[in-house]
Amino acid sequence: MTFSVNGKRVTVVGAARSGLAAAELLASRGAIVTLTDVRADIPAAAPLAARGIVLELGGHRFETLADADLVVLSPGVPPDQPAIRAARDRGVPVIAEIELAARWLQGRLIAITGTKGKSTTTTLTGRILEGAGLKVVVGGNIGAPLSAQVTTSTPDTFHVVETSSFQLEQIDTFHPWIAVMLNFSPDHLDRHPTVEAYAAAKARVFENQTSEDWAVVNADDPAVLALAAAARARKRSFALRTPIAEGTVLDRGWITDRSSAGDRQLVPVDAIHVLGPHLVSDVMAAATVGVLAGVTAAAITTAVESFRGLPHAMEAAGEVGGVRFVNDSKATNVESARRSIESFEHDVVPIMGGRFKGGDLGLLREPLRARAKAVVAIGESKALFRDALQGAVTVYDADTLADAIAKAYALAKPHGIVLLAPACASFDMFRDYAERGERFKEEVRKLTGSS
């Protein structure tokens, strides 16, 4: 039966870009839409009033949600808010924005999740498919929200979607043709009550797949294999280190497609121009999707060779007086920061700190002991880093990012690396990780001019 909202009262909670797109989509499908947000002033939402969408700003009214026929949540909205719980208790269906949009998509859905590397893998996957001449739209948690893709969706469209745990925890029928899980480690424990709850949300990416679909999994990560164990989809592995009989492997300088029919070389390692071995794993995941979609090795290589990574993800930010600067502002959890640090052999000075999201900072002790000259801590979690790293590496405090960069630069001389790898969210000091990364690059440019 075709999903319809015509004449239904639908409340969209959260007026960020996903919520705005969902409200517009619902209105175009005949729904009576209310868009609600805790913020009192959202200029981007103002034009929606002309579409007949009611704006309720400055808080969520219980009756607006409880009297709705459907509630749609933006990813940033915690689903345990009292007004949302009250609606659910009244029997009102509560779904994620990606769930809403996916019900109207016509093309194939490729969903990519994981604790680290989602944006890199999603972007590169899109470029691989585009390079093969396929019709591709990239978005979800990055780029265009899934709701903004519905009107142009056709049966031959490939929707490559970055999916977060926040989005997946409120799905119902969301059904990817290919679901990719890159890795798993504790994160977002400021939002999810336990690591197990976070894991369960991630595992939902496989929930509605059938034996006609594909689950692409990282065989180097036991947690990923455990979360994918119950998936009904056909499994396709990739592994940077673990020996596997079939799947995507690294062999004699090539990313290689290994099967019972023999090995097929896909991409030479020297065509990869991103920093860090963990990003090579992301390239392998994207190449695996390309193989499943029928893309040739030549087209995969061309896309990989032209890909220089994403802003704020192991981004080269310049060199000053022999010291290199690397911007990994997207490293917002402990595991991603660890991988960033382990990308360098010695003389690294990480800038770390911000709003801590949970996890074990002790996991950074040995990588830092082996590689770091010092750590410069910023933000509201400075004391956490001092305590967790005591005895492993010297930790210096800085009040501002500019101060942190100056201290790290002095410590990294003459030939070290200053690495922004916060292991924390940015919201104590910046609007988001992107603003933090841009400020980092701006301060490096100032150093360049003064050196």
Average pLDDT confidence is 95
Helix content: 25-40%
What fraction strand? 15-25%
Number of helices: 15
Radius of gyration: 23 Å
Tell me which CATH architecture of the largest domain applies here: 3-Layer(aba) Sandwich
List unreliable stretches of 5+ residues: none
* Extended strand count: 20
Q: Could you describe the largest sheet, including whether it forms a barrel? A: 9 strands, mixed
CATH superfamily of the largest domain: Mur-like, catalytic domain
End-to-end Cα distance: 67 Å
The helix-and-strand class reads alpha/beta
- Overall tally of structural domains: 3
Question: Under the CATH scheme, which class of the largest domain?
Answer: Alpha Beta
CATH topology of the largest domain: UDP-N-acetylmuramoyl-L-alanine:D-glutamate ligase
State the shape.
globular
Provide the spatial order of strands within the biggest beta sheet. Answer: 7-8-6-9-10-11-12-13-14
Provide the fold topology:
Elements lengths: L8 E5 L3 H12 L3 E6 L16 E4 L4 H5 L3 E4 L8 H8 L4 E3 H6 L5 E6 L4 H14 L3 E6 L16 E6 L2 H4 L9 E4 L13 H9 L10 E5 L3 H6 L6 E6 L7 E5 L2 E6 L2 E7 L8 H16 L4 H9 L9 E6 L2 E5 L6 H8 L6 E6 L11 H7 L3 E4 L3 H8 L5 E3 L3 H12 L4 E4 L12 H18 L1
Parallel strand pairs: 1-2, 1-4, 2-3, 4-5, 6-8, 6-9, 7-8, 9-10, 10-11, 11-12, 16-20, 17-18, 17-20, 18-19
Antiparallel strand pairs: 12-13, 13-14, 15-16
Could you please describe the fold and organization of this structure?
This protein is of the alpha/beta class and 451 residues long. The protein has three domains: 9-92, NAD(P)-binding Rossmann-like Domain (Rossmann fold, 3-Layer(aba) Sandwich), CATH 3.40.50; 99-305, UDP-N-acetylmuramoyl-L-alanine:D-glutamate ligase (3-Layer(aba) Sandwich); 315-450, Mur ligase, C-terminal domain (Protein-Tyrosine Phosphatase, Chain A, Alpha-Beta Complex), CATH 3.90.190. It has 15 helices and 20 strands. Strands 7-8-6-9-10-11-12-13-14 form a nine-stranded mixed beta sheet. α7 links the parallel β9 (178-181) and β10. The model has no long low-confidence stretch (mean pLDDT 95).
